[in-house]
Specification:
The protein has about 290 residues and is an alpha/beta fold. About 35% of the residues lie in helices and about 20% in strands. The chain is built from nine helices and twelve strands. Pathway: Carbohydrate metabolism; galactose metabolism.
Length: about 290
């Protein structure tokens, strides 16, 4: 298949592109050209800013793709600027469980209905992260209802390639003896590895799925478990105080997501034992340097 990927040069987008190539697809990556990639001559590259409407028209005029993956749509205008200029048989929007306004355990896809949500056209700066993603989903299902599309909601995505360093923050502070303020030690979170996130998206290339779907590792995790593991591995104790150095996951309360749809489609994410603890080991070694 002829596939376009927006957001394919870092994080789970790299895993998506590599998996699509391994499956034999022809892959084009659309990028502003600011982040180098290692795909060599295996991919076609289009350098374009999705907010430059004239450039978008020039770049994609007359092009049709079997699938467009959009990993970097953060608002309604982001989706509009793609679907007004890029023709595709199927559009796969990467979204987030942050669209759910209230955390709960075993949350299902139906907990947020973008068909009925109040649509507001706007740019990224007009919304916070969760609201921007709600608007991205809403413009897709309301304005572009004719477009065959899937919406993929991920929980926290972690991996060695996580440029946000959210999980590394906790490891680094313990290893280097830095105090930190954490307000949710016992809150449960669903997670997915960056490799599984990319792998699941690629898996959907051969599935006729035109609905909302979400997936995650089968277990939840608490920060207390992370700290306990790092303390045991390093022999160092976390310094927990009410200081100004606030941890990146502060404010989140316990939640989990129901992944029955993904399981029925035949995809099973790695367990935390398979990927999270090896990742923590890597972070420990990095923090020692």
């Amino acid at each position: 298949m002829n596939i376009l990927v927006l957001g394919g040069t870092r994080y789970f987008g790299i895993h998506l592109v590599n998996d699509l190539l391994a499956m034999g697809h022809n892959v084009t990556i659309a990028t502003r050209g600011q982040t180098p990639d290692t795909f060599g001559d295996q991919v076609t590259r289009i350098h374009v800013d999705r907010n430059d409407l004239k450039a978008m028209k020039q770049a994609f005029q007359g092009s049709t793709y079997d699938i467009v993956y959009d990993n970097i749509a953060y608002c309604s205008n982001d989706v509009k600027n793609i679907l007004n200029f890029v023709h595709c048989n199927r559009y796969i929007l990467t979204s987030t469980v942050s669209v759910y306004k209230e955390n709960d355990m075993n949350m299902r896809e139906c907990y947020f209905d973008s068909d009925k949500y109040r649509l507001l056209m706007g740019n990224r700066d007009d919304f916070d992260y969760g609201e921007g993603k709600r608007q991205a989903e809403s413009v897709l299902t309301q304005v572009y209802a004719f477009q065959k599309a899937a919406i993929v909601r991920f929980p926290f995505v972690f991996g060695e390639d996580d440029y946000t360093k959210r999980l590394y923050y906790y490891v680094e502070h313990i290893v280097q003896g830095k105090p930190m303020y954490i307000d949710n030690l016992d809150a449960e979170f669903p997670l997915i590895s960056s490799k599984d996130a990319g792998g699941f998206l690629a898996f959907l290339s051969n599935k006729r799925l035109n609905e909302v779907i979400q997936t995650a590792s089968p277990e939840t995790l608490t920060l207390q478990e992370v700290i306990g593991y790092v303390e045991t591995k390093t022999g160092k104790k976390a310094i927990l105080t009410e200081c100004d150095d606030k941890a990146p996951l502060n404010g989140f309360t316990s939640f989990s997501i129901n992944c029955d749809k993904a399981k029925k489609k035949g995809y099973k994410c790695q367990s935390l034992k398979q990927w999270l603890y090896p990742l923590l080991d890597t972070y420990i070694e990095e923090a020692k340097k």
